[in-house]
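worker-3 :: picked RNA-binding protein KhpB
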Amino acid sequence: MSKCVEKSAKTVDEAVKLALAELGLDRDNVEIEVIEEGSRGLFGLGAKDAVVKVTPNINLEGRAREFLDNVFVSMGLRVELDVKTEGKIMTINLIGDNLGIIIGKRGDTLDALEHLVNLCVNKGDGEYVKVILDAEDYRARREQTLIKLAKNLAASVTRNNRKITLEPMHSNERRIIHATLQNNPNVDTFSIGDEPNRKVVIAPKKK
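worker-3 :: tokens ->
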């Protein structure tokens, strides 16, 4: 179920703002129920605070936020979510301190968490939306590392006329290697093995 928040304040508007801040959502993504309008009382006596109940709408961003918030709370981490949706792609950037534990070795933990978020968001009750999870610009930094690696290994294969088999990689990382070298006149690339141990091979181009 979606997380509901009840807040009280001097006015309904102030109470709603408090609830939205806690949920990290805006008015367009929630349902607001006014439990108590609140009153100023007479000459300041008998004043009552306004009370509201705010419930996130069941939408894709809400699902992603709720899932990740629960994960990070269970891990004892304080992480802010910057969520942007354009068309059928939802990008979630994680903001916080010491996010290395979320990224994991070569991004393994981040990739696993991204997979789980995609399953959570896409429950078969709407159009499929691809969720991309990132932290500390890891995706961009990893891509540049792989591009540099691909070019260096291609040069080595050309120089020694001997193929090189890389370590197992996720499909998105294999695509970066293939794309980087697809127009290289001296080498060919292909993948071998089965998931999750599928590997890229860089081989001399057959003359």
